Amino acid sequence: MHQLGRMWLAVILTWWIAAPASADVRIVELLPDPPNDIAGDANHDGNRSAIEDEFVELLNTGNAPMDLSNWTLSDAAKVRHTFPAGTTLAPRETLVVFGGGQPQGIKGHVFTAVAGTLSLNNNGDVVTLRDSAMEIMDSISYDSAGQRDQSLVRNGDGELVLHTSLEGAQDALYSPGVVITQ
Ligand SMILES: [Ca+2]
Ligand SMILES: [Ca+2]
Ligand SMILES: [Ca+2]
């Protein structure tokens, strides 16, 4: 009986450790409110757009490549982007989805929202990453901090902070494709 109990414990621990593996891909930065004028040209295409220069940045925080085929990114209203089959994110690699435009010189994987816009409300919204089975892999909600003319960054355990509050940002307003954590 004792041995059976230990066996069950092993089974439960294995499940518990294995389950979060798919959540190694995290939303690490989002820009709902591109700054005014050319300072807000986050996708570097020479044109500041309140719609096109919005972005969401993902990072594979794990040690294994992640297959993002048919994963989706949604705001509170609906799906705004679906990742094409064959999208794979290596460990520590980034992926950025812009609202639109012609992104130039951004590191890592770069996409523009297939819906034509990310529609991140400046005064609060929810951004959710789901896998191909529609399971929630990560979700971030923000409030009116979204309208501060700079991006919001996930700091460590999940708290959102302003991009310029990070020393490593060196006063930059956002950093698509580059991970700055402190
Ligand atoms: Ca917006
Ligand atoms: Ca732009
Ligand atoms: Ca970044």
Q: Please, could you describe this protein's structure?
A:
The structure is a single chain. The chain has 182 residues and is mainly β. It has a single domain (20-169), classed as Sandwich (Immunoglobulin-like). The protein contains one helix and twelve strands, in the order H-E-E-E-E-E-E-E-E-E-E-E-E. The strands form three sheets. Strands 8-7-2-1-11-12 form a six-stranded mixed beta sheet, with no helix packed on it. The chain has a four-stranded antiparallel beta sheet with strand order 5-4-9-10, with no helix packed on it. A hairpin with a 3-residue loop joins strand 11 (152-155) and strand 12. The radius of gyration is 18 Å and the shape is globular. The model is unreliable at 12-21 (pLDDT under 50). The chain binds calcium ion (3 copies). One calcium ion (CA) binds at residues 32-33, 50, 54, 120, 122. The site of one calcium ion has 9 residues, from loops.
Q: In terms of topology, how is this protein built?
A:
Blueprint (H helix, E strand, L loop, with lengths): L1 H17 L6 E7 L23 E6 L5 E2 L4 E3 L4 E4 L5 E2 L4 E5 L10 E4 L12 E6 L5 E7 L9 E4 L3 E4 L20
Parallel strand pairs: 7-8
Antiparallel strand pairs: 1-2, 1-11, 2-7, 3-6, 4-5, 4-9, 9-10, 11-12
The structure holds calcium ion (3 copies).
Nutshell version of this structure?
The protein is mainly beta and 182 residues long. Helices cover 9% and strands 30% of the residues.
Give the terminus-to-terminus CA distance: 50 Å
Report the sheet-strand fraction: 25-35%
CATH topology type: Immunoglobulin-like
In the CATH hierarchy, what is the class?
Answer: Mainly Beta
Order of helices and strands: HEEEEEEEEEEEE
Total number of distinct structural domains: 1
Number of helices: 1
